[in-house]
Amino acid sequence: MIEEIKEDAETRMQKSLVALETAFAKIRTGRAHPSFLDSVNVDYYGNHTPLRQMANVNVEEGRSLVIVPWERAMIPVIEKAILKSDLGVNPSSSGESIRISMPPLTEENRRDLAKIARAESENARISIRNIRRDANGDIKDFLKEKEISEDEARRGEELIQKVTDEMIKAVDQALGRKENDLMAL
Known about the structure:
Layout: H1 2-26, E1 41-44, E2 47-50, E3 55-60, E4 64-69, H2 75-84, E5 91-93, E6 98-101, H3 107-144, H4 150-183
Antiparallel strand pairs: 1-2, 3-4, 4-6, 5-6
């Protein structure tokens, strides 16, 4: 029982880490990277389709992204979707492709983006702690129903705490990597 609770909590905490990495991917650094556009969904004949499923996204010269749609008719629709996506970039089309230049970040922009990254990591920590609280609540419920002993409950809570500590350490490491990326010139 305790092992099942631990595995469930660990799985849910891993999902929080994945969500954090996704949030970090949306925070741009000075370099261009195709994953920057992963959150962009385009209205493709009535369906919201991820941009990557309807175009090639390539990095050019390290500071710009080039999007080559598989259908030329989709260029204005893709441009509109990028503008709506609130990523803070302006696409420009050349008839066959769309180019997005990533302007270099100023020191102030870097600090602001680092604040956003810290806020996202704090949200992940809160999520992980909530999962720990839920798991410990499940263990206490089993203890009340006398399905486990007090020693097993204490051991289970220690296991949950160990997993929580590992996950929070992983969040801190991911934040450190993102801050280093943001502050690198």
